[in-house]
Write a structure and sequence with these properties.
This protein has helices spanning about 1-30, 80-105, 110-140, 145-175, 180-205, and strands at about 35-50, 55-60, 65, 70-75, 205-210, 215-220, 225, 230-250, 260-265, 270-285, 300-310, 320-325. With about 325 residues, the protein is of the alpha+beta class. The two termini are about 60 Å apart. The strands form two sheets. A six-stranded antiparallel β-barrel has the order 1-8-11-10-9-12. A four-stranded antiparallel sheet has the order 5-4-2-7, with no helix packed on it.
């Protein structure tokens, strides 16, 4: 019995050791095996449009054309915008002239004219006041009526008011314009300049420039079309960056750390892979989309990857299927 028990114990130990060894070999095999994923080329696109409303006068490119950043792609009829700039410039000139006039104040001739009015008002007041005083003396001897005395007093007060108004006007002319008037003229000038800047910007926006290097994918409108601001004119596929969208299951997640280098194979270049690096790994799992080539993964939860292609060329096109390999020749970037 003891020998049987010992034999059973030995068999159990052997089985355990075999299981451990087999598990370790499997783990080693998984760690040293080459990870292969499948994905698609993902190229960003931009819908270009004018920022102003107008009639499309010309388009310089067609579908499939290669464009460079800053290249003129299309033009609006700019005649209305030219007129708006001229009108805004005239408003600036008028506001500038008014501001200069306010700052300069009154001319010497104008001041002299107002000073002469003060002298005239002073003489008129002196006469009216003297006449009133004579009427008061005559009223004391009952030589004039009360009505005559009242008329003389009213005339003297009117002359005094006229003289005060003339002196105030002379003081204003000699002191210049009030600060509030200067500030108002300055604000009007700044507003006119802002309107001119907007008109010039609108004129500049009648030319549609390429936002980046790329290829024309879609030409949405033709010359003669009346466009609203923001209407899509051209769709541009950007040359850079070029990315690969792929998916990895949780078991292989540890092999696709950001920065790890990747070999990218296409059907058109099976012997000359592109090179790339893992740039992004989604922090959340999702169901694999139907575009993934491996049927056994389509119902699994996977993590989305973004592979940045470091040596992309014009052969890589939007949606092109590719094969990704993470092997010893494409090791982690930090090694």
């Amino acid at each position: 019995m003891n020998s049987k028990k010992m034999l059973v114990a030995i068999i159990v130990i052997v089985i355990i050791l075999a299981a451990v060894f087999g598990g370790w070999k499997m783990y080693q095999s998984q760690q040293t095996s080459h990870l292969t994923l499948y994905g698609n080329v993902d190229i960003r696109s931009v819908n270009t449009s004018f920022r102003v409303t107008g009639r499309l006068a010309a388009l310089n490119v067609d579908e499939g054309d290669i464009i460079k950043s800053g290249e003129p792609l299309g033009l609006l009829d700019d005649a209305p915008f030219q007129i708006a700039v001229h009108q805004a410039q005239a408003n600036v000139d008028a506001a500038q002239a008014q501001y200069d006039l306010i700052i300069a104040g009154y001319r010497d001739e104008e001041i002299a004219q107002v000073a002469a009015q003060v002298d005239s008002a002073q003489s008129a007041y002196d006469y009216a006041q003297s006449f009133y005083q004579r009427q008061q003396a005559m009223w004391a001897t009952h030589a004039v009526s009360a009505n005559d005395l009242q008329n003389a007093r009213v005339a003297s007060e009117q002359a005094r008011a006229t003289l005060a108004a003339a002196k105030d006007k002379l003081h204003q002319y000699r002191s210049g314009n009030r600060p509030q008037e200067i500030a108002q003229a300055q604000a009007a000038l700044q507003q006119a300049k802002a309107q001119l800047a907007q008109a010039q910007l609108n004129l500049q926006d009648t030319t549609l420039l390429a936002p980046s290097d790329g290829t024309i994918l879609v030409r949405s409108v033709e010359p003669g079309t009346l466009l609203n601001a923001g209407n899509t004119v051209l769709t541009v596929a950007l040359t850079r960056p070029v990315w690969i969208r792929a998916y990895v299951n949780e078991a292989s997640l540890g092999q696709v750390q950001p920065g790890r280098e990747v070999l990218i194979y296409t059907d058109s270049r099976p012997d000359k892979p592109y090179r790339g690096k893992v740039g992004f790994v989604s922090p959340t799992a999702e169901f694999t989309p139907k575009t993934v080539e491996t049927p056994d993964l389509r119902t699994d939860l996977v993590y989305r990857l973004r592979i940045i292609v470091t040596d992309a060329d014009d052969i890589l096109r939007q949606g092109m299927p590719v094969t990704l390999t993470f092997d010893d020749g494409a090791s982690h970037g930090q090694h």
